[in-house]
Each structure stands twice: as C-alpha cells, then as structure tokens.
Design a protein that fits this description.
Elements: E1 2-10, E2 16-25, E3 30-34, H1 41-48, E4 56-61, E5 64-65, H2 74-83, E6 84-87, H3 100-110, H4 116-126, H5 142-154, E7 160-164, H6 172-184, E8 188-193, H7 196-202, E9 205-209, E10 215-220, H8 221-225, H9 228-233, E11 237-244, E12 247-254, E13 257-258
Parallel strand pairs: 3-8, 3-9, 6-7, 7-8
Antiparallel strand pairs: 1-2, 1-4, 4-5, 9-10, 11-12, 12-13
Length: about 260
C-alpha cells in the first residue's frame, strides 16, 4: 500500500533530513515510528501525507508515484486526501474554520457527502467535543484542539492514518480512547513518538529513524523496546551512572520512563 524506495529529503537551506529510506507498509499494519528529537519523524510523515516529496528516490501509494506532477491531477488528489490523513504535531496548523462543527464537517462537505451532520455528531460524541461544537477552534485548549484535529481527519473514514506524537498533547482519556480506536480500526496506522512508555500501546511493528537519518531498525516493536543497546545507539535511551552511598550502578533512562 505504501512503498518508499531509497527516498531522501532535504528541507531548503538545511542539511539532508532523511536519506536512503526504504520500507513497505501493507494495508492494516500498525506501525510505531520512533526516533530522537530532530531525526526526521515529522518530515517522514509529511512525505507519506504527500505534503512534501522525496528529493531522491520515490514514494508510491497503492502503486502510484506521489510527486509534484501527480499532485496536479485533481481527481487523484481528492481521493488521496480522503484516504491518507495526518494529525500534525501542532494542531493549530490544521484548524482554520469558524467553529469546531465546521472544522469537523469541512472534509465531508468538500467531498460532497450527504450525511455530514450525522458524521459530525458521531465524532463529536466519540471525542467528547459536544460542548465546544459551536466555539471557534482558536479558543480551545491545546488538548481540545488536538481532539478537534483528530475528529476532522477520522470523520473521513481514512485508509491510512498518520499521527505525529499524538500522546504529547492529548489528555489520558483521549489517549486511551485513541489506543482502543487504533486497535480496532482496519486502517493502516503510523504513529510517531519519542515516548517509549506509550510506544507499545500504538502498534506492533516498529520503524526507528536513527540520528544518521537512515532507518536504524524495522521489525517487531517488542523486540526493539527490549534492546537497550539499540535504543541507546539511536538516542532513545541513555545509561546513567549513579551512586547510592558506596555502591555505584547504572540506570537506563528512556523518554517517558525509567526502565531499570
Ligand atoms: N519546515 C522546515 N524547514 C526547514 N527545516 C525543517 C523543517 N521542518 C523540519 N526541519 C528540520 O528537519 C530535521 C528533522 O525534523 P523533524 O522531521 O521535525 O524531526 P522530528 O519530528 O523527528 O523531531 C530537523 O533538523 C529540523 O530542524
Ligand atoms: Mg516531530
């Protein structure tokens, strides 16, 4: 369904951000994307969402090259945008409608769907947004904005759901809801996080982007989380020497938890 072939990417006026990325995702896979801050997780998700394009190599979605030329095909873009969705790390970038109701309804209206109201009320109730439906999104808290942004993409009933550090701003109840939703959905899911404590909740396959901007690991998530050497190498864990009275021993620190 998703195929990156030796893809590289560099932001203008910045050093190379990603290089030599190759992997395939099949329909329905649940993938956790791990990597230290700045290694390129958000950039990779933007490539998969067709917001930026590989500067070398290729990205194919359902066998079709996703590139600038393809993005001029309006019919294809319309389909792609309804099938592949991205929850941004910063939800403000996604919210531009006058009310929460319009925000959630925006995609379905653009697609000309006829059951927009029912869909909006279903997702507002799933994410407990009923009380703020008539408020402007900019007046909401960060966590509420994230929930509106989530509702506005899930309402499209997407086939590929890309989530950029969703647990960073969602409250525990919304995060729990999301974990359950992702377990049940048949969609392909890629969730980025640098929070190892949450990672195991979000999927079973793991892709790790190393600090050298290459894929450092692609395999079972449990195995990656148990491999302290790997986690240290990619700067997701750090061994810290530490004294208790006369004895000295090492602790492994991870983002979000202390493992040992
Ligand atoms: N819009 C942008 N313009 C220029 N450089 C960017 C932009 N977004 C990210 N970068 C750079 O690309 C690299 C990877 O960033 P990012 O993908 O955000 O990493 P992560 O999400 O893993 O923290 C960083 O060096 C970052 O500064
Ligand atoms: Mg990021």
């Amino acid at each position: 369904m998703i195929e990156l072939n030796n893809a590289a990417f560099a932001w203008p006026d910045a050093p190379q951000s990603l290089s030599g990325m190759s992997f395939r995702l099949d329909a329905g896979e649940k993938v956790v994307l791990l990597g230290a801050n700045g290694c390129g997780k958000s950039t990779l998700l933007k490539i998969l969402d067709g917001l930026v394009f590989p500067t070398a190599g290729s990205y194919r979605y359902c066998g079709v090259d996703v590139n600038q030329v393809r993005m001029r095909d309006r019919e294809w873009v319309r389909r792609f945008r309804s099938e592949v969705v991205l929850l941004f790390q910063q939800p403000d970038a996604m919210l531009f409608n006058p009310t929460v109701r319009d925000e959630i309804a925006y995609g379905p209206r653009k697609l000309g769907w006829t059951d927009v109201e029912q869909r909006v009320s279903y997702w507002a109730s799933a994410l407990r947004l009923q009380a703020v439906l008539d408020k402007p999104p900019f007046m909401l808290s960060g966590g509420e904005k994230q929930k509106v942004a989530l509702a506005s993409i899930l309402v499209l009933d997407p086939k590929v759901i890309l989530l950029d550090e969703p647990s960073a701003s969602l409250d525990p109840r919304a995060t729990g809801w999301l974990v359950d939703f992702l377990l049940d959905t048949g969609a392909t899911v890629v969730v980025s996080t640098h929070d190892l404590a949450m990672a195991a909740e979000f999927g079973n396959r793991c892709l790790i982007v190393g600090e050298d901007q290459h894929i450092a690991y692609d395999g079972p998530l449990r195995q990656a989380l148990a491999d302290h050497r790997l986690l240290e190498r990619v700067n997701l864990a750090h061994t810290h020497r530490h004294r208790h009275g006369a004895s000295e021993h090492a602790h492994v620190y991870q983002h979000g938890s202390k493992a040992a």
